[in-house]
Amino acid sequence: MSDALEGANRAAKLLSPGDGKPLSFVGVSTVLKVVGEDTGGAWSLIESTVEPHFARFNLHRHRRMTEAIYILEGALAVQLGEQTLTAVPGTLVFVPPGTWHTYANPGDRPVRYLLFMPPVSLGWMTTS
Q1: Nearest residue to 94 (alpha-carbon basis) of 113, 110, 80, 84
Q2: Cα Rg for the chain, rounded, in angstroms?
Q3: How confident is the model over 1-52, as pLDDT tens digits?
């Protein structure tokens, strides 16, 4: 085993559907699948489900954070700057730092997506 791996506090794992740390926001259910502690501080992967008729989060931007949203199910109305687009399954929404963005689910079905982002910690948020 290399020295780099000997000091790592990480383990290979398989996460089944529903596995991870659940979090809930108004209108959005989230499961932290892989966090910074798992990746040596490289990245995080979050699975989210957006309830039907979810109005939207406030329009916002991040100074340093890049987000990538990969749509699994449903159709998400995504606002990037002043443009609003519809993201369907198989769509990747790439949001670089400084981009004003938000999303909504105006439809009658839930939207499920994966969010790739900089590393978050298990202590990032608390469950409700």
Answers
A1: 80
A2: 16
A3: 344 444 456 788 899 998 999 988 788 999 999 998 888 889 999 999 999 9
Question: What is the 3-state composition of the chain as percent helix, strand, coil, each rounded to the nearest 5?
Answer: 5, 40, 50
Handedness of CA 69, 72, 76, 82 (dihedral sign): positive
Question: What 3-state DSSP class applies to 48?
Answer: strand
Q: Phi/psi zone of residue 6: left (φ > 0), alpha (ψ -120 to 50 degrees), beta?
A: alpha
State the Cα–Cα distance between residues 17 and 62, nearest whole angstrom.
Answer: 30
Number of alpha carbons in the 13 Å side-chain half-sphere of residue 84? 10
Tell me the residue ranges of DSSP E strands in 11-123: 21-25, 28-34, 44-50, 67-73, 76-80, 83-87, 92-95, 101-104, 111-117
Q: How far apart are alpha carbons 125 and 50 in whole angstroms?
A: 18
Place of tokens 């990480």: 10
Best CA proximity match to 68, nearest among 114, 111, 6: 114
- The whole model's pTM is what? 0.85
